[in-house]
Each structure stands twice: as C-alpha cells, then as structure tokens.
Amino acid sequence: MRLQLDDVLLASTRTASRGLLFGLCLICGSVSSSHSLHGAEIAVSTAKSFPPQINAEADPLCVNSGTLVICGGGILPSKILDRFLELGGGPRARVVIVTSASYVADLDMPLRLSGWYDRLAENEMATLEILHTRSREQAEDPEFSRVLDDATAVWFVGGNQNWLSQTYVHTKTEERLHAVLARGGVIGGTSAGAAVMSRDMIAEGRDEPTLSTGLGLLPGTIVDQHFRKRNRLNRLVRAMQLRPGTVGFGIDEGTALIVRGRSLEVLGDSDVSVCLSESPVRPQRIDSIPAGKKGDLVMLRRAAIARAEPPMIRKPVETPEVQQGTLVIVGGGSTPKEAIDRFLLAAGGNEASIVVVSNALSENPPPQNEVCGWLSSAGAKNVYQFHAKRGEDLKSSELLAKLTAARGVWFTGGRQWRLVDAYLDTHVQELFHDVLRRGGVIGGTSAGATIQGDYLVRGNPLGNTEMMAEGYGRGFGFLPGVAIDHHCTQRDRLKDLVQLKRQHPELIGIGIDESTALIVQGSTMQVVGQHQVTVFDHDAAHKAANEDYAILKSGESYDFRQRRRVNIEVAEAETRDEAKPESVGDAR
Q1: N or C terminus: which one in the chain shows less Cβ crowding within 10 Å?
Q2: DSSP 63
Q3: Are 222 and 74 in contact (CB under 8 A)?
Q4: Cβ partners under 8 Å of residue 217, min gap 6
Q5: Band of the pLDDT at 526, cuts 50, 70, 90?
Q6: What is the C-alpha end-to-end distance of the chain, expressed in Å?
C-alpha cells in the first residue's frame, strides 16, 4: 500500500515573524519500518466495502452541542489552531492530543509535538496530555481514557485512519469523546483525524473507496481530505453512492470545516466541497463553501435524506381547496382589521380557544404578551401560546391539550424553516389539520402565511432571498397545490414567483402584498386589506392577454375550480352552500 508521508505527524514550526504553520513532520525512516507497515495492513484488512446501505443516522436535526474543527491535511495556517484553542477555552483549555493514527506514535511524541508544548509554555492553554494505544482492550478500559473527562479540546493527528477505527470505535474512549462535544467542547483533527469524524469512513482507495467505520462525531456525513490536491471527487461521490442519505464533505489542504451545531464555516486557504448524490428526480449536486462563508448542516442533511428516499412526484392538484374550515393568510406588515375579525368569527367568536404558534420567531419562546396580546386586544378571551420543540415538548400533555381543544391556530411571522424543524412530519402537524377538519380556522402572517402552502418558498435557514431551498421545500399543505409568497410587491418578488412557476408548472403561485390577506373557504379565496394579491395560475385567459398572472384587488374573489375571478356575492353564496352541511354538524 502507498503511504502518504506528509500525513505522518502533525507538528508545528515557528517562522521568524512569529507566524505559526501547523504542518506535517516527515519521518521517512520510521515510516518504512516493518512494524508500521504490518500494522497498517492489518488495519486496512478490517475495512470492507458493502453494497449500498441507507444511512442509519436519519434524523437531520441530530447536531452536536460542541464544535468540530475538521482539517483537510497539508500545512495548516496558524489561524486554524488559534481558533481551535479559542473554542477549547483559550488559556483555560485542557487539551488532549490523540496520536494513534501517526506512524511514529510509539516514538518520542513530545519532541515531535514541540509546537504544542511551545504554546503550553506561553500559556495559550492550561494543560496538554497525549492519548495513544493500538489496543482495543485498553481503549475500552475506563482508566485509559479518563483524561477525556476533564478535556475541553481534543485533537487527532494525521496518519492512518484505520488505526483509529480499529482501536477506538464503539469503545469507552469513543463514548468519552462524544461526551466532550455534549458538554460544549471542541474536537479537531487533520487528514486521517478528519476522515474518522464521520461514522461512514473512507478507509482507502483511489477512485473506488473501501469503507469502514469512524467515530460518528458528525452524523449523516462522509468526510474526505486532501480533496483538491489529490483529486478525490470521484472517490467521495462513489462513497456516497454506497451510503445513500449522506452528505459528502471534501476538505482541501490548509483548510478547516468548522461545525458548530447546524452552522458550517470554512477557515483557511481553500474551500470545502459539498456533495449530494443524484436521485431519480435530481442531478448530482456539488457546491463549494469558500473560506469565510457559511453553510447549514441541517438543510444539507434534509436534502441528502430526501434524495435517498423514494421520489415524491408532485402531481398537479386539480382544484386547490380547503375542504373544511377556513384559512386566513396575511402577506406580512400590519394585519387588516377585517382579516382579524374574519379569523375570530371563523374560530367561533371571542370565547373560542385559540393557540398562537410562535416558533418562527425564535428558538426559545418569546414573551406570551408579545405573540398573543394583539388577539386579546381584538376581543379574544382564550388565547394560548404554543411553542413546542422536537422531543419531549411534542409529548407534553398540557401543550397538546391546548391544541386539541383549539378552534383557531395562528402562525406568527419570522422564519419558516423553524416551523419545519419543529413540526413537519410530526403528529402535531396532523393536529393542525384536525383544527380545519372540525371546521376551525388557521391563520398566519409572513412566514406563517408561506407555511400554509403545499410548497414552501424561502425556507433556506441562511437567508430568505433564495426562493427554492432543497431540504426545505415542503409546507404544511393546508392549501394543497399552492406555493405562497409574502411581502410580494413591496419587496419586488414577482419575478421570483415567475421563476417558481417555470420550474414547478404544476403549482399555483400566490403572491400576497403587505397589509393584505386572503380568506380561503372551499375553492374560493377573497382578498381583504390595503393592497393586492397576484395569482400565477397560467390560465388560458391570462395567456391570451399575454399575462402570466391575475391581479386581485381588495374586495375581489378568485375561484380555484374555475381558475378565474368571480363576483363577490356569488362566491359568498357558493361558499355558504358548500359549508352548510359542516355548519350543521358543527353546531354545539
């Protein structure tokens, strides 16, 4: 097997200008020893390449509490180590270096880690320990890895990732490494120390990878290193094909991918390539995160998992309609008084039980008076805040009882991706639909308007300028067959709806202006408020007039069944006729 000499050992050399290059020490004589070669062959022989398997780490919201600093090998700029130590606590950092991947790990390591010890002497960290074994039995011994209990920062040097896999995977040592992250610490590594971060690990191979098992510190991914320098794109793409549902990260030399929770940041000389496998309905996707830019791990993981699942072919909805209940959809800005009145009326009056879902505003619940006070001022007497999180909150009997009893649900503005993360594909989403099924009302503004559609626009967690974000393309579907955008004219968003309609001709696009609302019952929607609503339905009548859309002013109505404007009085009469059996059944 070919040994990569520049991965032998991470060391540091100081330049005359006090800059730090965090580089690789080449110990050629030691690397060629029969002991090291024999050990490498044994480790690689334990790695197998299996047929494609769906990734088992299927929860895209599974992210670490701590930080990972994953480096692509080569000579690392000093700012990467500076950042690693800063994340570990700076002068209070308690650092452990795992040297087991190194081909010279059994030699005089303190001498070869002199750069680290220089930093210790200059009080850039509090303590420095070395952890090394090639024995799984020792790695399983609680005494061996006890030093990790106090560690705030752990670093893996480069070398042979198979030694790390063979020695530490699924042992007490691995358990303690995960605990470092769980309490907010930082784990970093370069080259082999980067490859071992994912659970599905590339063990070796030029274009056809041999896969083994890594430490699983970055779930749902496959990490490759020396990426551009050694032209490893084909290898990573093939590895992802063998493990559908994974995100591929190709990290170049002199570069670090910093992962904090869901946030991805690149630091160093080059970039990080992000790869998603092709699916029956999507081509292979290869993006780049340059140094200084950021990405979102959860969005990428959602996209990768969706590509591995059977494709969801979106069929045109012949007639978008709300079969039971009412929708009140506001385009942002101030909510029209008529929309508030219609919402309360549809809920059953001022005594009706109403919940306000505030997740779009922030991760943690904002003060209740900020999200519920406006409804109380409008006369509602039983208004409750609903702000659950995935996990135990979704099982809260108190929260669920409020939703089960509700006759009205209102979604605040904010960022729609937070609503997706909290409720999409959970039993709570079904409870929202139940409000409509029992004849109630669902309303919302801005992000709380967009989430009501079948297709979700502007779902990118990194910003709201991107219309279509893979991984965040599904709304709650209260109005099927429709995509809803908000702040439409005020933020010059008509062109975005044109683009959406061209890419998804099966959808009806609706753009709602600020201080304007739609009231939807059955297949009819009515506009109330100050401005207008734009409907992209590609109706033949609009095409004949060389238009892609219909514009509805306040007071006008539109019928999805007929795909045209309708007289207000006729629309209201048709709505009453459609709702009559439900009204009788709902009388209490």
Answers
A1: C
A2: -
A3: no
A4: 64, 68, 177, 178, 181, 187, 197, 198
A5: very high
A6: 79
Helix-helix angle 397-405:427-437, to 10 degrees: 20
Q: Which of 588, 527, 524, 586 is closest to 556 using CA atoms?
A: 527
CA nearest neighbour of 473 among 358, 303, 307, 285: 303
Residue 371 has a pLDDT of 96
Tokens of 300: 């990428």
pLDDT tens per residue, range 171-185: 999 999 999 999 999
pLDDT score of 585 more than 70: no
With pLDDT > 70 as the criterion, what percentage of the chain qualifies? Answer: 84
Among 524, 533, 513, smallest CA distance to 558 is for 524
SS3 509: strand
Rounded Cα distance between 429 and 434, Å, is 9
Helices of type H across 276-426: 297-308, 337-347, 368-377, 397-405, 416-423
CA distance 267 to 503: 35
If you average pLDDT over residues 326-349, what whole number do you get?
98
Where in 241-311 does DSSP place strands (E)? 247-251, 255-260, 263-268, 271-276, 285-290, 294-296
| Banded pLDDT at 539 (limits 50, 70, 90) | low
The tokens 């009388």 sit on which residue?
587
| Count, residues in the chain | 588
Which two structure tokens, joined as six digits, stand for 565? Answer: 């404007």
- pLDDT, one tens digit per residue, over 494-524 is 899 999 998 899 999 999 999 999 999 999 9
Single out the residue of 243, 197, 244 nearest to residue 224, CA to CA. 197
Measured torsion, CA atoms of residues 524, 528, 530, 533, in degrees rounded to the nearest 10: -10
Read off the pLDDT of residues 121-152 as tens digits, 9 standing for 90 and up.
999 999 999 999 999 999 999 999 999 999 99
In sequence order, what are the residues at sequence separation of 6 or more whose Cβ sits closer than 8 angstroms to the Cβ of residue 505? 538
How far, in Å, CA of 574 to CA of 316, rounded? 24
Nearest to 522 by CA among 327, 279, 308: 327
User: How confident is residue 112, by pLDDT bands cut at 50, 70 and 90?
Assistant: confident
User: Residue 269 and residue 291: Cα distance in Å, rounded?
Assistant: 7
Q: Return the closest-CA partner of residue 526 out of 517, 534, 539, 535.
A: 517
Q: What is the homologous superfamily of the domain 5-33+67-308 according to CATH?
A: Class I glutamine amidotransferase (GATase) domain (3.40.50.880)
Instruction: With 0.90 as the threshold, say if the pTM is over it.
Output: no
Structure tokens at 130: 């070395």
User: Is pLDDT at 14 greater than 90 in this prediction?
Assistant: no
- Yes or no: say if 191 and 158 are a contact pair by the CB < 8 Å rule: yes
What mean pLDDT comes out for the span 404-432?
96
CATH number of the structural domain 324-586: 3.40.50.880
5-33+67-308 and 324-586 have identical folds: yes
Residue for token digits 């599904």?
Answer: 474
Pairing of strands 516-522, 524-529: antiparallel
For the chain, the domains span 5-33+67-308, 324-586
* Cα 40 off chain centre by: 37
Across the strands, what pairs with 13? 21
